[in-house]
Amino acid sequence: MTFISYAQNLEDVILWRALKDVDGGFYIDAGAAWPEIDSVTKSFYDRGWRGINIEPNPSFQKKLRHARPRDINVEKALGDREGTAQIYILENTGLSTMDATIAKKHRNIAHTEPLTVQVTTLNQVWKEHVPQGQAVHFLKLDIEGLEEQVIREFNWEQHRPWIVVVEATEPMSHTPAHKSWEKVLIEKNYLLVYNDGLNRFYLAQEHKGLAPRFQHPPNVFDEYVLNREQEARMRAESLEIEVEYIKRRLRELDEEYWNRHHECCDLKRKLNQVYDSFSWTITWPLRKSFKAIKKFHTKYLHHDKTPQKKQALTSSERKPQLFVDVSELVKLDSKSGIQRVTRNILREWLTTPPDGVSVEPVYGNDRGETYYYARAFTAEFLDNSHEKKAEDTPIQYQAGDIFLGLDLQPEIIPKNEGFYQTLRQSGVTVKFVVYDLLPIFSPEYFPGTAYSNHKRWLETIIQNDGALCISQAVARELVDWLKIRGIDPAKNAFEVDSFQLGGNMESTATEGSLSQSVEELFNSVTEKPSFVSVGTLEPRKGHLQIVKSFEVLWAEGMDLVCILVGKEGWLTDDLVPRIQHHPELGKRLFWIKEASDRDIQELYQQSTCLIMASFGEGFGLPIIEAAKYHLPIIARDIPVFREVAGNHATYFKGRTRECLATTIKHWLKLYQRNEHPKTDTMPWLTWKQSAVILLKKVLPNE
Right CATH number for 318-502 from 1.10.10, 2.40.160, 4.10.320, 3.40.50? Predict the structure, then answer.
């Protein structure tokens, strides 16, 4: 297995060559700094070792506690006596020191900030934290000018680390600094066995059999790779796979284009044959007469002769009605993202009624003859107990009313195609909210009927007055789909617009207690970096890639937590059994199938990062919700996520486990240095603002 080197000067390669026969060894790292960057102990930790990290910088200690839960992390400085002292913190460097002279030299490198810290001795650390009988296989001292004090104070007769590695130059220089303390180690029966130009390696006399392993500098026979080279190689492999996928997809699209082109040509030829036929020619007067009769019927007999249209009112005295279609929500609140949008927009309009219009929740059925006022549902929704027995009657409509298909019901809407045209003929404006075109452009992620159902739904809504898309990305896709069908929205008076969704959780999110599963989760993963993904488990969401990427990270020894929040969806034969029988389930892998808004709020607040791995989305509501709680985000690089999150997220492109694993590791490095993209300043709307914007786009003259 290739050794991955994280150390600044390949110190870990030399130590591994000497100690690779030791199983589950123990180390002491004084001046540990970052848990990964320039770390001498990171690769040993990943291979099952553990030890003690001594680091007085609170910022570094926080990162160590997160990344090294098996280690003992001591937030103190080392000296020759216990007490307190001032340390000069040089942020984002490993140069913090208690030596004021050294700190002064480094003022041009980083801002120096004095901080009072606890000081202990190496003897005391050994006494308190090294288990009885535990061998210490190597001790690393990188304490910026205090090496002599610590080495002279230490009881080398009683405590015998096998190997001692000491930084042996003055900080940030080639000037040797070992002469004042090396003789102490020599006198204590340690042999100088290697000098790498920065550090000097000493071997205890009783382990001199290891001395030949220090004869040569790191070389090809050590079978090592630098961490940054490994990451670059993995990124390159992921890009190669991505390129191959794109090439294959382009070939598929090209083939699909020409198939559709030939179909269109064939249909056009057949249509021309009809137009050229004798029967079409001789029936022309009949068709013209029928159109004239229909026009006369619509103009003069509309209100008197058609039973269905008796519902239309002639009075202009009442306020215009905004009919809000909630056909799916009336049947079942499945807690999906779309229904979260429907609930929040509807609640804002009902609790803060807009001026000049009456908001009326309505629903249709699969008979397609009319829509009904959702009186009972509305009373239940607003918890108005005295109105819960209200009767659901057919809607009464007139010119100037507006119908908005806010909910998504792809089965009911096509069956009411004729009724929408009846509304329009009566002067009612009919528009629909479009959440996505994913079943059209990515049918492979959906069950067999999804494509045909969504296509019929789209074909129904484009016969009306317009669509309001939940993102600019969806609006562009809808326009593209219309153009493919030879429809120009401008020429067909079909308006395509967009609005942005809100991000604040519903008011119920602050009510009630946490579910037992969420409480137990956070009790068991304290201080471990935790990554949460929110959304129904289905192939488009990328959950399988998430789980596989964490398997890579766990195999590398990274102690991270993966939390999946969402009910089981469709086409999950590969995913759900993998989760249910996973050895890490309940330890570092968690699946929260039923989460209340209160649970989700807590997950956003307590987690380290949100992962959005969807291959396609209409909006990506969890991104906005996470931003409200300043939760950092790792997201797939797709247009809608760029639109919503901008520069406030870390993006990845590949579809392999290694690609996402590499991105997570890179993000953790940035996070440890506090250099990761932050969501604190990411713009987002409340549901109240979103509802106001949507209303302005729905109502005329707003």
Answer: 3.40.50
Q: What is the pTM (predicted TM-score) of this model?
A: 0.54
- Give the residue from 499, 371, 373, 504 showing the smallest Cα distance to 434: 499
- Tell me: the pLDDT tens digits for 19-34? 999 988 999 999 888 8
**pLDDT attached to residue 301:** 54
Largest interatomic CA distance in the chain? 118
285 has pLDDT over 90: no
> Measured between alpha carbons, how far is 131 from 123 in angstroms, rounded to an integer?
13
> What pLDDT, on a 0 to 100 scale, did the predictor assign at position 599?
87
How many Å apart are CA 330 and CA 324, to the nearest integer? 12
User: 3-state DSSP call for residue 22?
Assistant: coil
Answer CATH for 507-684 from 3.90.105.10, 3.40.50.2000, 3.10.450.50, 3.40.50.970: 3.40.50.2000
- Paired tokens of 190: 């340690």
The CA–CA distances, whole Å, from 195 to 57, 169, 175, 224, 523 equal: 28, 11, 14, 19, 46
Q: Best-predicted range by mean pLDDT among 244-253, 427-436, 450-459?
A: 427-436
Quick one: DSSP state of residue 206? G
The pLDDT-based confidence of 433 (bands split at 50, 70, 90) is: very high
Joined tokens for residue 613: 């791995």
Arch. (CATH architecture) of 3-222:
3-Layer(aba) Sandwich (3.40)
Which residues does residue 404 pair with via DSSP β-bridges, in sequence order?
A: 324, 431
Say yes or no: do domains 3-222 and 507-684 share a fold: yes
Of all residues in the chain, what percent are helix, strand and coil, respectively (each to 5)?
45, 20, 35
What distance in Å separates the CA atoms of residue 191 and residue 8, rounded to the nearest whole number?
Answer: 23
Question: CA 583, CA 562: separation in Å to the nearest integer?
Answer: 13
pLDDT of 667 reads 94
Chain-centre distance for alpha carbon 300: 58
Task: Report phi then psi at 534, rounded to 5.
Answer: -115, 120
Lowest mean pLDDT among 219-223, 485-489, 588-592: 485-489
Distance of CA 85 to the CA centre of its chain: 43
Domains of the chain, by residue range, sit at 3-222, 318-502, 507-684
Q: What is the mean pLDDT of residues 639-654?
A: 91
Question: What Cα–Cα distance (Å) separates residue 551 from each residue in 530, 547, 562?
Answer: 14, 6, 10
**What Å distances lie between residue 547 and 282, 524, 553, CA to CA?**
67, 19, 10
